[in-house]
Amino acid sequence: MVAASLGLPGVATANYLLTNPGPGMPVIQDIPGATVSFELPVHDFNAIEFTANKRLSNRWSLASSYRWSRLTGNFEGFFRNDNGQSDPGISSLYDYPTNDPTYTAIGVPVFGYAGDIRYLGSAGNGPLPLDRTHDIKLYGTYAFPFGLNVSLGLEVESGAPLTGFAAHPVYDSGGEIPLTARGAGFQTSNGFETRTPWMKPVNAGASYNLKLGGRTLLLIADVFNVFNTQTVLDYDSFSQLQFGVTNPDFGLAGVSGVISGQQFATPRQFRVGLRFEF
Predict the structure, then answer these.
(1) Which of 43, 74, 84, 222 could disulfide-pair with 205, CB 3.0 to 4.6 Å?
(2) Facing residues of 141 across strands?
(3) What's the burial of 17, exposed, middle or buried (CB within 10 Å: 0-12/13-18/19+)?
(4) How distant is the alpha carbon of residue 106 from its chain centre?
(5) What average pLDDT does the segment 238-260 reach?
(6) What is the mean pLDDT of residues 144-156?
(7) Backbone dihedral angles phi then psi of residue 154, each to the nearest 5 degrees
(8) Do residues 36 and 29 touch, judged by C-beta distance below 8 A?
(9) Could you give the CA distance from residue 255 to residue 236 in angstroms, rounded to a whole number?
């Protein structure tokens, strides 16, 4: 990347190469005294899950589970949740070598680079954006003898890891170069955070059977997010809008550089319905 900023011959244009990047990929060593190389992408998922279910008997049923999981590495896949780029095979990842000490040694003091491209590689290995360490689900139902059925559901999920991103010095696009290792967090409008808050929505439902001769009319009512919790779903992780242009909303709660609109949990919602069976 420094070679491009220096205007060295041949670095302004490149051919696309679809391959599995790694240390074996040749790199022209344009900068004297520095060794620059590609690294292996890492995407590891490990999980263990426990379930406890009870079929409907004695008028009640239960479906529950707990999952502990870790999704770590430096490569998400074809879609990048950290900046919203969906370009399978040709995302900006690995356009430039990730093991590049010249990015900070030369690029930062000379050209005003921010972050460190090595955090896109092995130096940045950590929780990926879809990592959710804990996930607990509880769904129960009870059937009263007079035709009323009630249900209650709770899903508790730990928050998403937070990583700040600077703009790309060559492409001039935001959300490209990590400021820290993945999941190290940044200062937000709610204080320093390494993850978004836990999600704990409670949902409830009820249905009632009305017998009409040989037919049935089912009355249905559901409430989603019963307690109307306004949990923050994301913080603006872009420290720069463009290269050299500071983002004034960096760290602001309920704002995303990837998805438009306010990033808060959906407010309380009600749903009613009728079902006629014949």
Answers:
(1) 222
(2) 61, 151
(3) exposed
(4) 32
(5) 93
(6) 94
(7) -135, 130
(8) yes
(9) 5
Q: List Cβ neighbours of 212 (8 Å cut-off, separation of 6 or more).
A: none
Closest Cα to residue 225, out of 154, 158, 151? 154
Rounded distance, CA 197 to CA 68, Å?
17
Cβ count within 10 A of residue 50: 10
- Cβ-contact 38, 117 below 8 angstroms: no
Q: How far is CA 134 from the centre of its chain?
A: 15
Residue with tokens 């490990």: 46
The maximal CA–CA distance of the chain, rounded, in angstroms, is: 90
Tally of CB atoms within 10 A around 72: 17
Q: What does the block give as tokens for 185?
A: 């967090």
Per-residue DSSP letter, 253:
B
CA torsion angle for 226, 229, 235, 236 (degrees, to 10)?
80
Beta carbons within 8 Å of 253's beta carbon, 6+ residues apart: 188, 189, 190, 232, 235
10 pLDDT band, cuts 50/70/90, is confident
Q: What is the pTM of this model?
A: 0.89
Cβ(159)–Cβ(195) below 8 Å: yes
DSSP state of 105: I
